[in-house]
Design goal:
The chain is of the alpha+beta class. Helix 4 runs parallel beside helix 5. InterPro entries: Aldolase_TIM (IPR013785), GH (IPR017853), GH-type_carb-bd (IPR014718), GH97_C (IPR029483), GH97_catalytic (IPR019563), GH97_N (IPR029486), Glyco_hydro_b (IPR013780), Glycosyl_hydrolase_97 (IPR052720).
């Protein structure tokens, strides 16, 4: 008994010592919390009757003297603190990693806002920090708002998404006040390049759990000369929980894409049996309309076109076929009137016989009928998922759509500038992708290689994207041989290899490839890279090279096989070290490459495929033309 009592006392003393080592609490208005490796540090201070924070990384100032509040305008008092340490792992249903480490130190701060109790949770990770408030009972005469300042150094530069347009930046902090006159809005995920050769991203996660809050918005306060973000609480509920406000910290910009903090702070999986959720690739009809095959067949909205898609999908292990708009003519609650252009029932039966699952588009502008009845109806049609269009940036509706689609065992892919529910793929893994970017040829225009790099390094930080890369008949698209192709002829600047690489670089649970089956069959040796790629089932993902507006190279592992995709705006060579391979093992490597004759403007479809052997430590010189790409598939010999 004495030994047990001694052990208990020793454990308590160790816990106290640990708390003191993490958090300097000699005065309750001066607090400090470090990350597990000690390199990220947060200080909190009750200053000028407000709560201020400072953020440091590698002994450098990152954010200084910045207010954080849930009841701005009220005096705040720190009552007590509690420190927690978490070091565990969890397994996502699908994602960039098969196992994710969740290692952080957390400071729980009890606050008093002039008689109103609240709690602030601060988590420090080795790769960033996160903040969340909880209030058990909000005052009837007060409007809570998650307010946060970002006192960034004036030498910092910002990049912001721009909806379906090209992300803009760099914008110096000193010039942020001019954005209002340019009618440019700062959106999450903001990317910050500071003067200490560090990259930050400012965003939020777990909005799906924070009922009553809208999407984060950023503004520049000319009075304080600070960037600020604010979420108003609009709800009749008495209690509130905010989203997690996150600051990611990396030394390389590409590592922001594989940073797991947004997933770690998100609520765990809410779907009890998620075995029906299967990430994968999908063919898609919308961009193929008007394409004429060599046998004279022209694609459109009809059974024969869809049979061709399904046949190719079945023959090439493509899991899904997505049928887009115009398959119906009228909508009523729980019922949709089919177009006479096709017999959807026959298409569904044909797909089932071939082992191909169907995804079906829905346009909410068709009267907005039957949102609650829509999902059970789609399930009754035999669909595996829904592509939801024109829902608008409506947080409550989008949250309900994700939940209701899960209840009907449906995947959901959001179209047209959706709510960036960062972290939702952990909480509701049926939320498989979203078009939080300019998708390939969207609005009938083509994006440039530079725009692709920007969206890949900025928009993709918030989660899986549906960008519709993978055009192989580039010449046909540029010649206007598609009904839905770009209005401006010859505006698509890319190469066939770059298109293949993009399908790997952009992480998604649903890789939607937009070209005709015949276009892929004509380049079957190049299509092999997409065909063999196990979408969303990655064990490991790494960004090997990254530079804004210039190049991006990504490697993903499934089992013992590696897939590597690279693109280059200006053209050049990237040295890719294969030091991630296993020792004493020979590997077969298939190269998919631009050639000396490839030109993204005049000869975009020239490519070569060759096979060799490699081993750990070899260096591959990935050579690309301007706007071109390079792919590798590596597997044990």
């Amino acid at each position: 008994m004495k030994n047990q009592k001694f052990l208990k006392i020793t454990k308590n003393l160790l816990a106290v010592f640990f708390a003191i080592s993490l958090c300097s609490c000699s005065q309750l208005n001066q607090l400090e919390l470090k990350s597990p490796n000690g390199e990220v540090r947060i200080t909190l201070e009750s200053k000028e009757k407000n709560l201020k924070y400072n953020l440091f990384g590698n002994n450098a100032d990152i954010i200084s003297n910045s207010e954080i509040s849930i009841l701005q305008g009220l005096e705040v008092e720190v009552l007590e603190t509690k420190v927690n340490k978490v070091n565990e792992t969890w397994h996502p249903v699908w994602g960039q990693f098969s196992e994710i480490k969740d290692n952080y130190n957390e400071l729980e701060v009890s606050l008093n806002y002039e008689g109103i109790p609240a709690k602030l949770y601060v988590r420090t990770y080795n790769e960033g920090v996160a903040f969340r408030f909880k209030v058990d009972e909000t005052p009837a005469d007060m409007k809570p708002s998650f307010f946060m300042e970002y006192g960034l150094p004036n030498t910092s530069n910002l990049y912001s998404p721009a909806g379906e347009g090209e992300p803009f930046g760099p914008v110096a902090v000193a010039d942020l006040g001019d954005l209002d006159t340019q009618k440019k809005k700062l959106k999450m995920p903001l990317v910050v390049e500071n003067g200490e050769n560090q990259f930050l991203s400012l965003l939020e996660s777990d909005l799906i759990s924070a009922s009553g809050f809208d999407v984060i918005n950023f503004k520049f306060d000319t009075n304080s000369n600070k960037l600020v973000s604010k979420n108003d609480f609009v709800s009749d509920e008495k209690s509130l929980i905010t989203p997690w406000r996150i600051i990611l910290i990396e030394n390389n910009i590409g590592d922001l894409l594989t940073n797991t903090v947004p997933l770690n702070v998100a609520a765990p999986n809410q779907i009890e049996d998620s075995s029906w959720i299967k990430p994968g690739k999908t063919l898609w009809d919308w961009r193929v309309h008007g394409y004429q095959a060599e046998d004279g067949f022209t694609y459109g909205i009809d059974n024969e076109s869809y049979y061709r898609f399904i046949d190719f999908a079945a023959e090439n292990d493509i899991e899904y076929f997505l049928i887009d708009d115009a398959w119906y003519t009228a909508v009523k609650p729980g019922y949709i009137e089919m177009s006479d252009k096709l017999d959807l029932d026959k298409v569904t039966k044909y797909a089932k016989e071939k082992g191909v699952s169907l995804l079906l588009y829905y346009d909410r502008r068709q009267g907005n009928y039957g949102d609650e009845a829509l999902f059970p109806y789609y399930k009754s049609l035999g669909m595996k998922g829904i592509k939801y269009g024109f829902m608008g940036s409506d947080v409550p509706f989008t949250r309900d759509a994700i939940r209701m689609s899960a209840e009907s065992n449906l995947l959901i892919d959001f179209h047209d500038g959706p709510v960036p529910f960062t972290g939702v793929s952990r909480t509701y893994p049926n939320a498989i992708a979203k078009e939080f970017c300019h998708a390939q040829q969207d609005s009938r225009r083509a994006f440039t290689p530079k725009t692709f790099i920007r969206m890949a390094l900025i928009n993709a930080i918030q989660g899986p994207l549906d960008m519709n890369n993978g055009i192989f008949d580039i010449t046909g698209v540029n010649a206007g041989k598609r009904e839905k192709g770009p209005r401006k002829l010859n505006s698509l600047q890319t190469t066939s290899v770059a298109e293949a690489a993009r399908t790997l670089i952009i992480f998604s649970g649903l890789v939607c490839i937009p070209d005709a089956p015949e276009a892929y069959a004509a380049k079957q040796d190049l299509f092999e890279f997409i065909q063999e790629m196990p979408v969303g089932k990655w064990d490991e993902s790494n960004v090997l090279h990254s530079k804004m507006d210039t190049y991006l190279s990504t490697a993903r592992r499934h089992g013992d096989a590696w897939f590597i995709g690279s693109v280059h705006v200006e053209g050049g060579t990237l040295d890719i070290s294969l030091d991630f391979l296993k020792e004493n093992q020979n590997y077969i490597i298939t190269y998919y490459e631009d050639t000396e004759e490839t030109d993204s403007k005049t000869n975009p479809e020239a490519y070569q495929v060759r096979i060799a052997t490699v081993k750990k430590g070899d260096i591959v010189k990935a050579k690309m033309v301007a706007g071109g790409g390079h792919c590798m598939w590596i597997r044990p010999e």
